[in-house]
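Lab manual, section 2.4: Encoding a predicted structure.

Procedure: take the sequence of the chain (242 residues), apply the prediction step described in section 2.3, and record the output as structure tokens. A sample record is shown.
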Amino acid sequence: LFPYTTLFRSSTIHLCYTLLNSTFKQACRLRLLSVNPVLQVELPRQQISPHQRALSITEQEIFLQYARSSPYYMLYTLALLTGMRVGELRALRWRDIDFPNASLTVTGTMKYTKKNGCYRDSPKTNASYRKIPLLSAAVNLLEEVGKEQIRTHRSVKTWIPLEDLEDLVFPSRTGKPLCQGVLNADINRIVRNINADSDAPFLPMTPHTLRHTFSTRCMESGMSPKVLQTILNNCSSHTWMS
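Recorded output:
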């Protein structure tokens, strides 16, 4: 079934396997097939680097505990609640959030070049334009972010007017666009603090680890791969929350 394994990433092959297995399993339930052919496939060994692995439930709790002192704690938490890419979170605007209907719309991503610095751009792909339903925990978190931002805006003299930044939800401490390098450094600091207090080494991670962790929690809760794919790439309904 997968004769050209060297041409594809192992993670892509495993995703295809999962989706096909779900499809053929349903076909067997409907008696359209007598045997699920995917079960005969021998998958290539999946190599996962420390930066790509998801956090376990215990590791997730430890990370959030140590991240509470970080100015980006709210961003990390929302990443774990929505599975959004870190560039999408950094580009999220207040106008993209629909509090009455408990949802947000992904309309952009933050990018960086030496010439332009950090700037807001269109999403990664057409499928990246999507509406994400929000759990009550995410709504409460965003409301708290808004209150904190107002307090910071009033207290920091160098704060740039929010309208000049397209009302970013997660700007830097001075109101400028938040660059990923800042988050990388902050997460490295958090991991160092965890390791300093623990005999068991906490493996390296990046902001993207949070997206992998969201996916893993969803799968552990019994969510189908197809629904998860919809949430991560083009979510248009609230059915995944049931």
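Check your result against the sample. Residues 125 and 189 are 32 Å apart (CA to CA).
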